[in-house]
Here is the input.
Amino acid sequence: MLYVKDIYKTFNPGTINEKKALNGVSLKLDEGDFVTVIGGNGAGKSTLLNAIAGVWPVDGGSIYIDNFDVTGMPDYKRAQYIGRVFQDPMTGTAATMGIEENLALAARRGKRRGLKWGVTAEEREKYRSKLMTLELGLENRMTSKVGLLSGGQRQALTLLMATLTKPKLLLLDEHTAALDPKTAQTVLATTEKIINRDGLTAMMVTHNMKDAIAHGNRLIMMNEGNIILDIKGEEKKNLTVRDLLGKFEEVSGEAFASDKAILG
Here is the structure.
């Protein structure tokens, strides 16, 4: 479903601020894979997600989604293939519009739009049914402005919007980092439920090693723009934070430097 082949990205090339963010990264995701991506600050995690989403062009290499070459395609054209949830709960929704209006926008993502606007009764019932699965009572507040929702409610709504029309690939960029621990766990549980229910292919960047181990069927660790660990199957199921730290030190030759990742 995703094939990243030998991609490179350098920011501010030829200057004192030059930063090689991706150094020939290659990665394959099969349909239904749920991959968590862990690494310290500057490891290349978010740069990889942004490259896949088309936020900026890569300097070299190729990106395929469902066997279609999207390497030169801008982000707005990739929207028909990709669902995305960002770290900031304020991103990804229109704060001054109602819940049902936001869902209607999401349902039309990547499709041709005419001058006709409005939410039909059939659409409203569909959105109500989807909102009920979140178990947050939002199905009773469909005309409420999204800006009035809490961070957790808004992030859960953004997750629903990103998956309303089944994307080829779901990208989650530290989507619980701005939430309190209890709310973060609720959103993570909702994330896993939606991914498993709809058989989605997903990548989730996180700073939290415990979350990276607990969720998904595969774990990737990045360091200095490279993938240095790729763990799946029984090995991932039996993995502990101590094991992961040991593997990182063995492969990279240095200690993992992020207390936030270790302590969660």
Summary: The domain at 2-81+167-263 is CATH 3.40.50.300 (Rossmann fold). The first strand starts at residue 2 and ends at 11.
